[in-house]
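Record now logged underneath.
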Amino acid sequence: MYGRSISRLLIAVLCGWLPLAATGADAPPKDNAATRVQAQELDREQLERRFASVGTLIEKSSAARQIETSGEAPARERHDNAKRLYREASEAFKAGDLPNASRLLSDASIAMFEAVRMAAPEKIREQKSQTDFNNKLESVKALVAAQKRIATEKANRDMQDSVRQIEGLLAEAQQYVATDRLEQGRALLERAYLMAKAGVSSMRMGDTLVRSLNFATKAEEYHYEVDRNDTHQMLVKVLLEDKKDRPGVDGMVRTFLERAGKLRGEAEAAAARGDHEAAIKLLEDSTAELVKAIRNAGVYIPG
C-alpha cells in the first residue's frame, strides 16, 4: 500500500497536479482545471506587461517620434501597420483569445522595428561610412609605419618627406570628419591611402622589400605587378582631379601616361601569350612611367 501511494504521489508531481512541497504520501491530486486557470492567469499577466511595453514603443517612445518626423513614407506606413496590429491584439486579449493576442502583439513589434529601420536610412549610412573611414585610416597608418621604418633605415630624406605629406593628409582628413564633413575627409583619406600604398609597393624595386616577397609562380608575380600598376594609375587620377584647375599639370604628365598605357597594353599581350616574365618587366616599366607622372604632379613617392 505504501509503495503504491509513493507511486501515485510521484505521478501527481510529474503531471503537475501537486507541487514538490506537498506533504502526505496519500495526498490526492488537485483539480487539473484549477492548475490550468492559474497558468492562464500567469499568461494574462505576462501579456499585460508585453502590451504595456509594446504600447509605449509604438506610441510614446523616441523611436515613434523619429518615425513621425523622418518624412519617410514607408516608415510611417509600417508604423501605422504596427498600430493596427496592436489594436487587433488588444481586441483579441479582451475577448480572451490569448494565443491570437500574443501572435498579433509579436507582429506589431516586428512592424514597429521595421518602421524604425526605415526611418533612419541616412543615419545607418553615416555610421557605415564612419566605420569604413576608421578601417581605412588604420590601413593607411600601417602602410605609413612601414614606409617610415624603411625611410629611416635607408636615411632617405625624399621618402621621409613623402611620409610627412601623407601624415599631413591624414590629420586634415580627421579634422574634416571631426567637423561633420565626412565626404571631404574620405576624399583626402583615399588620396593618402593611394600615396602610402604606391609608396610602399614601389619599394619592391629596392632590396628591402624584394627580400620579403616570395612568389610561387611568375603568373602570381605578374598579378602583383598589375595591382601595383592599378594603384599608381588611381593615384594619378586622384592627383589630376585635385589639380584640374591647373591645365599645365595635365600637360606635363600626359606623355608619361601615354607611355605607361602603351607598356601596360604590351604587358597584357605578353601575359596572354603566357610569357609572364616579359609581362612583369613591361609592367614595371609602365609603373615607372606612372611614378614620373605622379612626381610631376607634385607628389613624391619612392620608385
